Amino acid sequence: MILLSVSEPNATPTLISAPIPTPSDTQIQVRIAATALNFADLLLIQGRYQDTPDFPLVPGLEISGTVTAVGRKVTTHRIGDRIAAITGHGGLAEYAVLDARRAIPLPDAVDFHTSAAFQITYATAHLALVRRARLAAGEVVVILGAAGGAGLAAIEVAKAAGAKVIAVARGADRLKVATRAGADISIDSAATGFADLLHSHAPFDIVYDAVGGDAGTTAARRLRPEGRHLLIGFASGDHPTLKPNHLLVKNIDVIGFNISAYPGLNPTAMTDSLTTLLRWLEQDKIRPHIGHTFRLQDANQALDLLKSRKATGKIIVTP
Ligand SMILES: NC(=O)c1ccc[n+]([C@@H]2O[C@H](COP(=O)([O-])OP(=O)(O)OC[C@H]3O[C@@H](n4cnc5c(N)ncnc54)[C@H](OP(=O)(O)O)[C@@H]3O)[C@@H](O)[C@H]2O)c1
């Protein structure tokens, strides 16, 4: 089979041939139909992701496909089943083997591209906003990095939970994408007077911070008492500055969130979340936005697009 291999931190990913892997007793083998890219793939390639496996590694954190073999002890899946899974890495390949417990069965109505694309971003948005930050209907949520994969999912999940959504992204085209996803107000982070513009809609109940840096610091400043700052990612390369005296005086929670910890930390919460989201998908309550599709042979172009910050929504790679 063909796979995209990264030999060492920061090496250029290269397409190579390798034998199709065989599942262990508790694993399934999957013929991959689609893999969705995430910002974390760029960190994986650099060796900077919190869950980077040993090199050489294969990027690609979430997949969908068809089960082609099952381990001796697997009773939950059969050859021919359509599944989706967060694999953590290994998705930019024709086949993968994974722990059977990570795979969720796909309803017939949900296609492979959508099911690969919805998992990490929507489960992050759902678990972070609803479980960790206790989002209630009517609350005001600011979403930073709103036109990226994580941001667009957060807009839809927050709207489905009855929130008022303020989306922050860079440039008119990206703001349009955020508005189409359901944002009530969209603000350009590159506009002159960005802080005043954002603060004119304050106070905020929750900041969903996938960017950090100045944008995170600016949004956090106008959280209301008992507000929550959700730390999702630092796409800007910087942490937000969250002043302890503000947090104390205003009873503000700073909440860390890491989706990749959930399969170990609380697999049931993860599976329940994905099952709820699959139902929302079938009911058309959420519509994962797939902006770009590439073949595996062109995976480096897909990664370059991700790096360029020009992508909107999810990037799919198909073998
Ligand atoms: N905690 C978790 O479990 C979890 C799960 C998923 C993602 N994340 C994190 O969330 C962040 C966003 O992920 P994603 O998949 O949505 O990525 P993405 O699609 O590439 O979006 C990243 C967004 O960040 C904004 N951004 C601002 N400054 C940036 C910079 N200097 N470089 C690149 N982007 C910048 C960009 O929007 P503008 O250009 O419009 O500002 C872009 O829309 C990443 O840090 C990722 O690791 C965390």
From TrEMBL:
CDD domains: QOR1. SUPFAM superfamilies: GroES-like, NAD(P)-binding Rossmann-fold domains. The keyword Signal does not apply. It comes from the Bacteria. InterPro entries: ADH-like_C (IPR013149), ADH-like_N (IPR013154), ER (IPR020843), GroES-like_sf (IPR011032), NAD(P)-bd_dom_sf (IPR036291), Zn-ADH-like_protein (IPR051397). Keywords: Acyltransferase, Transferase. Its EC number is 2.3.1.41. GO terms for molecular function: 3-oxoacyl-[acyl-carrier-protein] synthase activity; oxidoreductase activity. Residues 8-317 form the Enoyl reductase (ER) domain. This is Phthiocerol synthesis polyketide synthase type I PpsC. It comes from Boseongicola aestuarii.
